[in-house]
Amino acid sequence: MLGKTYFTPFTHGEVKAQGWLLRQLRIQADGLSGHLDQIWPDIRDSRWIGGDRDGWERVPYWLDGFVPLAYLLDDDDLKARAKRYIDGILARQEEDGWICPCAQEERATYDVWAYMLILKVLAMYADLSGDERIPGAMKRALWRLKEHMHFHTLFGWGAARWYECLIPIYWLYERTGEEWLIDLCYRLRTQGMDYRQIFTPYRDAEPRREWTFDTHVVNLAMCLKQESLMSRLTGGDPDAFGLLAHGTLKRHHGMAVGHFTGDECTAGLSPVQGSELCSVVEAMYSFEQMLAVSGNPHWADEAERLAFNALPAAISPDMWTHQYDQMTNQIRCERLPEDHVVFGTNGPDSHLFGLEPNFGCCTANFNQGWPKFASSLFMRAQDGLASCLIAPGEVRFEQDGAQVRVSLCTDYPFKGSLRYEVETDRPVAFTLYVRIPAAASGARVDGAAAQPGAFFAIRRTWQGTQQVEVAIDFDCALVERPGDMRCLWRGPLLYSVAIDERWEKREYTDKGVERKYPYCDYEIFPESAWNYAFAGAEFSVREHEVGDRPFDPAQAPVEITAQLAPVEWHEEHGVCTPAPESRQATGPARAVRMIPYGCTNLRMTEMPIAE
Predict the structure, then answer these.
(1) By C-alpha distance, which of 236, 311, 255, 300 is closest to 278?
(2) Cα gap 313→493, rounded to integer Å
(3) SS3 label, residue 359
(4) What is the Cα–Cα distance from 57 to 107, expressed in whole angstroms?
(5) Kind and range of the H or E element at 19?
(6) Contacts of 294 (CB under 8 A, 6+ apart)
(7) Which letter, b or e, does each residue of 214-230 get, where b requires 16 or more Cβ atoms within 10 Å of its Cβ?
C-alpha cells in the first residue's frame, strides 16, 4: 500500500509564474537552457534521438528542466522541440521495454541512472501534455528494469541514486495499482546505497582530497529525500533522516548561503571551497519533494534559501553561462594555476562562467531549478490550498465543483508585501494555508499576527473576488560563521560586498565543442576593493523596483549600506585566503554597498569583525 502525501503537487500545468519569476523563466528560455538542442552537440546530436553523441544523462537532465519550462511559459515552439525528443525516445524503445540508447550487448555495463532519470521525465511530460503513449511505455520500461536487475545489480550512479526511481514508480502505481511495482521499489532499496549508514555514525566530517560516491555532493543533495520517499511504503517519520543528514552536512561542510560544500566531494567549512551547481538544484528538488510528503514548512524555507541565493549566484544574469563551482568569497573567476587548484577534486576552470566549465552535467541539469521551483508555488491540501513557496504566481483548480483562481502578487524575497487574490465562480468553502517564512522577524495576515516558520490557515467561504494582505518584516542580522567570521542576512536574502567587475570572454573550440558568444567562457576580474571586515551593526536598507533581470548586480532590487573597514587580506593564486592576515583595521570605516548574494558574480560574504 502506498501512503498519501501531506500535500499534493499540481502536475497538469495548473500553476503559472507571474511577475519577476515569470521574467526569470523567460530569461532562461532565451538563454542557454532554451538553446542547448541547437548549439550543444551532446543534446543536439545525442544518441537518444539517433545521433552519435552522449547517450546517457545529458538529454534526460536537459528535458527534466526544459519540459516544465516549456509548459510554464506555454511556449508552442519550446513544447514542439520537447515533443521531438520525447517522440524520438519513445520510437527507439526496444520491443522488450528497454528504453536507453545502447545495444543489447552493452546493457550489462550501462549505468541505469539515466534509465531512471528518463522515466522521471516521461512521467512529468505525460502529466503536462496528456500524452497517452507514456503509461504503457513506462510500464514496459520498468518491467524490463526489474528483469534486468535479476542478473545485473545496481552499480555506480544507479546504485547511488536508486531512490530517484521511486518517483516514476509511484506515478505508475497510482495509475495501475500493480504490486510488482512495489516489489521493484524494495529491490531498488536492497541493491542501492543506504545513506542512513553514512550518517549513523557520520565519518566524513574532515574533508579529503579524494573522490568517492559516499561524499559526492550531488549524491548527498539527492539522498536527503531517500527516507521521505520510502516512508510512503514503510511508514515512520518522513522527516527524521532528512533533518539528520542535512543538519550533519551543514554542521561539518556548511556554507553561509545555507548549502554545503562539494567541489566535487564534501570540502569543509572554508569560504573559498566551492559547491557544484548540480547539487544546488538537486537539493531544491529534494526539499520540494520532502515538503509534499510531510507538509513540514521547514523544507520550503530551505528550498527558498537556495532558490533566492545559491542558484542565481552561479548563473550569469542573462542565463547564457554558469559556473560549475561557486565560492562564498569569490574575488575573481580566473583559470587557476594547475598546481594551485583550491577545489578538492575539480579542475582549475570550475568557477569560470561558461558553456560547460569542468564537466557538462551542470550545463544540462541546472535548468531544472527555476521551473520546478515555480511548479511548487502552490500545492493541494486535504481541505484546500497551500501557498508553499513564496514568489509571484497563480493557480487554477476545481474545489467542490467551483472553479477557483488564486494569485499571489509580490516582489518577495526582495520586499515583504504579499497580496493574495482569490476568485471563484460560485461560493465555496476551503482553507487557504499561507506559509510564513522562518526568516521573517514578524508577520501579519490581514492585520492578525502570524507565526514565522508555520502555515497560517484562513478558513472561510470564498465568493466572488477577495483579497488577503500579508506583511512580512525583515531584520538585518550578523550571523556567526566558523573561524569567528560573520555574514549578513536580511530575511530570506544573504548579502555580499558588491565588487565592481570586468568580464573578458574566451572563445575557442575544445573536443569539437565550440564556445562562442553568447555561450563562450568568461573570466571575471575585480575592479574595486574587497578586503573588508564588518565595522558595526548599523545597516541602511534601500529597496528598488525589480528590474528586467531580477538578479543582475547592476540593478539589484535591494541594497544595504554597511560600515566596513579595510583589513590586511591577501590573494593567493587567484583566490583570497580563507581569513585575513590581521583583523586590525588598516583605515577608517567606510560606507560600502552590499547586495543580495544571488545578484553577485564576484563577492565577499564571510568577513570578520574589525578590531
Answers:
(1) 311
(2) 12
(3) coil
(4) 15
(5) helix 19-30
(6) 6, 228, 238, 239
(7) ebbbbbbbbbbbbbbbb
Residue entry with cell 494582505? 469
Q: Given a cut of 90, is residue 511 above it in pLDDT? A: no
* Residue-by-residue DSSP string for 270-286: -TTSEEEHHHHHHHHHH
State yes or no: pLDDT of 39 exceeds 90.
yes
Largest CA distance in the chain: 75
Residue written as grid cell 569583525: 609
Residue type, 550: P
Q: What is the pLDDT of residues 72-87, one digit of tens each?
A: 999 999 999 999 999 9
Burial class (CB in 10 A: 0-12, 13-18, 19+), 507: exposed
Residue keyed to cell 499576527: 449
Would strands 485-490 and 465-473 be described as parallel, antiparallel, or unpaired?
unpaired
What is the mean predicted confidence (pLDDT) over 34-57? 97
- The answer to whether residues 525 and 334 touch, using CB atoms and an 8 Å cutoff, is yes
- Using CA atoms, how far residue 347 sits from 95, 311, 324, 340, in Å, is 42, 21, 10, 10
**CA-to-CA distance for 228 and 223, rounded, in angstroms?**
10
Ordered by start, the domain boundaries in the chain are: 31-193, 379-410+417-473, 476-604
pTM, rounded to two decimals:
0.98
Task: Locate 35 and state its grid cell.
Answer: 538553446
Q: What is the pLDDT of residues 386-399, one digit of tens each?
A: 999 999 999 999 99
Which residues are CB-contacts of 97 (< 8 A; sequence separation ≥ 6)? 140, 141, 142, 143, 144, 145
